[in-house]
Amino acid sequence: MISAHQLTKRFGDFTAVDAIDVEVRRGEAFGFLGPNGAGKSSTMRMIGCVSPPSGGALRILGMDPATDGPAIRGRLGVVPQRDSLDEELTVRENILVYGRYFGMPRRVVNEKADELLEFAQLTERANSVVEPLSGGMKRRLTIARSLVNDPELLLLDEPTTGLDPQARHVLWDRLFRLKRSGVTLVLTTHYMDEAEQLCDRLVVMDGGRIVAEGSPRELIALHSTREVLELRFPADDHAPYAAKLTDLAQRVEVLPDRLLLYTEDGDATAAAVHDRGLAPLSVLARRSTLEDVFLHLTGRTLVD
Amino acid sequence: MSAVSALARALPIPAGAGMARTLVERNARAFRHGWVTLVSGFFEPVLYLFSLGVGLGALIGDIDAGDGRMIDYAAFVAPAMMAAAAMNGAVFDSTFNLFFKLKYARLYDSVLATPLGPRDVAVGEITWALLRGLLYSTAFLAVAAAAGVVGSWWALLALPAASLIGLAFAAVGMTVTTYMRSWQDFDYVQLALLPMFLFSATFYPLSTYDESIRWVVQITPLYHGVATIRDLMLGDVGWGILGHVLYLTVMGLVGLVLAARRIERLLLR
Question: Is the model's pLDDT at A61 over the cut of 60?
C-alpha cells in the first residue's frame, strides 16, 4: 500500500524526516510511534500527498504522489491531528460536502451520510452545527467524514490526543471495526497504550529517523525485559540509589522522579531491594510496555 | 464557471482536479446559514445611488459626460456605484472571508486532503465571489433602471463587465490575502480601496483633473471598471472600451495564477 525508500523531508536547514524506509501492507494497522517533533506528522503529510518529499522515493497504492496526487487522495481517508471540520456547516453537511469534494453524486453521498452518522453515533446530532459538539464527537465526525469515499487506506494523525479515556475507547472500537472490514490503517501516536492496542506493526521514530521496527510484542521482547520495577525514593536525586541497585536488574533507568529496574521478575527484585535495607516510598511491579522500549532506544520518555 | 476553469487549465498554474464547483457548492451551503450578508451587499450601491446620485444630484444638476453631452448626475454616478460595488464585494470575499477560512477555519487543510488541488481552491473561491457579485449587480441594475438612470440596452452588458471587475479584484485580493499575517494588515486593503473609490472618476469626470495628473487615475483598475460600465450604461460604446476590458482581463488572469501559486506555497509545504 505504501512503499517509502530513503524518504526525506527538509524545511530549510531543518530535516524533519531523515531518509526513512517504510513498507505498509494491505489490511494491516501500522503505527508511527514517537514523541512530538519526531517527524511523524511530516511523514503522514507526505503520504497524504499534501507535502512533496524533499528526497527519496515514495509510492502509494502503486502510484507516485508527485504526478498522481489527486488520484491517490481520491482513495485515501485522512484524519488530521487538529480537527478541521467545517464550522459553517451542520454535522450532516460536513459529510455531504466532503463527499462532493471526491466527485461523488449527491444521491450516493446522501445515503453514505446516514450510514456514517450511524457509525459515528451522531445520528441525533445530524442537523446540529459543529461548534457545540464535544471533543470526542468532533473526532468521531472527522473520522466519519474521512470514510465518505470508502478509502482503502486511512491515515490517522494522533487520533485520540486530547480525548478523555472513555472517548478514546469508543474511538478505538470504531477503528477496530474498520480494520476488520479490511481498511488499512496508518496512524501516528505518542501514546504507547494506543500503539499496543491498535497496531499490528509499528516503527519507533525519533529525531526524524526510525530507531526500531516490529510488532509491539517483538519490540518489547527485543528491547526490554518482561517486567519493570518502579521505585520512588524520598530524594530529589535518584542516581545514588541507582548505584546501589545496578546488580539487581539487567538495566536501571534513572528518571527525575523514580527508578526503573528492568528485570524478569518484578516481585523478586522488589524483595531483593528490601533485603538491602532500602525503603522506597512506593514500589510498583508491572509488565514492560512500548514506553520502556522507547526509553531504552532514545534515553527519553515519550510524553514529556 | 467552466470558462474560468478552462482558462485556469490553459495557464501555467498549480494542479487541480477540475472540481472547483464542489467548493462553490460548499460556499452556497454555508451561505444559507448566513444570508444576512446578502442583503448588505445589495444595499450598499443602492444607498449611494439615492443619497449621492438622486439627493446630491438635485443640487448639481446635469453634468458633462466627457464628450460635451450633458446628462443627469444620477445617471453619471450610477455606473460608478455599480463598478465600485463589484470591487468592494470581490475584495471583501477574497480578503476577509478568505483570510478567515485560511487561518482560522483551516478549511483548505481538509479540502486539499481530497482530490481538489490549489487551483480548484483559487478557481472555486473566485467563482463564488463572482456569482455573489452577479446577484448584486443584477439587483442594482434593476433598481437603476427603475430609477430611470439607465440610458441604453447596452447596459445589459454591464453585468458581465461587473463580473470582470469582480474577477480582477478577487484574484488580486486573494493573492494579497495569502501574504497577510493578522487582521491589522487589512488596514492596507482599506488604504488602497478608499482613494480608488473616491478618485477613479467615480463622482466627477476625469476631465476635472489637470492633464498632468490624469495618468495617475488612469493606471488604477477601478478607473477602467468605472469607465467600462459607464460607457455601457450610457450607451456610449466605442473601441476604447476594449482597452479597459483588456486591462481588467490581464489583471484577473495574472491574479488567478499568482493566487493559486501562493495557496500552493502556503498549504502544500
Answer: yes
